[in-house]
Protein: Putative S-phase kinase-associated protein
Organism: Lupinus albus
Amino acid sequence: MDEAVALECQTIRHMIEDDCADNGIPLPNVNSNILPKVIEYCKNHVACY
């Protein structure tokens, strides 16, 4: 995922800003059915700017 897209999610943004994203970012509360929808939403949001 592009960093600009990842930065749309506040949880991921904070982990990147705190240098906690070197080995991946765990998202334990997001299941595999929801994650693609979240990514698509973030991509669309970035495209609007």
In short: Helices lie at 3-6, 10-17, 35-47. The mean pLDDT is 87. The chain has three helices and no strands. The two ends are 17 Å apart (CA to CA).
